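Posted in: Protein Modeling Q&A

I'm a second-year student putting together a small comparison for a lab meeting, and my supervisor asked me to include a predicted structure for Alpha/beta hydrolase-fold protein. I've never done this before, so apologies if this is the wrong subforum. The sequence is pasted below exactly as I got it from our records. If anyone can share the structure token output, I'd also love a short note on what stands out.
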Amino acid sequence: MQPFTIGSKTVSIFPSIEPEAPITYLNTFSDEGQKVYGATQPDGCPPFTLVSISDLDWNHDMAPWDGPAAFKKGEPFIGGADNYLQLLVEEIIPRAEKELAEPPVWRGIAGYSLAGLFALYAIYRTDVFSRVGCMSGSLWFPGFKEYIFSHEPKRRPDCIYFSLGDKEAKTRNSVLKTVQENTEEIQAFYQSKGIDTVFQLNPGNHFVQGIERTIAGIQWLLRR
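Accepted answer (user: helix_wrangler)
Welcome! Here is the predicted structure, written out as tokens:
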């Protein structure tokens, strides 16, 4: 299916041959949707439709609120997640699902790094997603853990997948080094509420096997 553009974002749809198959929305840093979907097909993954969104203003669209740069030479975060989420819910999703033969049996949201943070944030601002994949999510983001612990999702999620590289917290960066502790605490918080959730620790740092980790998360959501 041909990609289309909405609000400067490029949207690619990889449709399932099964009507009513679940649909997963994947926000991507550099348009990894084709690689992710292609890799799920030969290995008996349950059928699903993938919608990948690229050409994002990463530090704006994925950030829930303003924050200082995470690296010395990095850009600060300008919280634009609410604006982007409105575009996703009101324009991208209706356009993407207009072509489907049947409404999806469920709708999930997934992402890697800041997009994993955004996927989790999204369920606190909208009720359209019922499953979340937070792969190597930027859960070090200042104030985010506290936000999770003090707010209620718009709908109780069916399941949430968390993963992280085992070297991601091994850094001198005082902000980034909190990522594993925060991820484990957040995952335990959902588990204590009886939500189906898992935390997967993978070998390597943040920049290792991003595609493979993304696929693993989506497959876990599909098999629940």
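A couple of things worth pointing out for your meeting: The domain at 4-222 is CATH 3.40.50.1820 (Rossmann fold). The beta strands are 4-6, 9-14, 23-27, 49-54, 107-112, 131-135, 159-165, 196-202.
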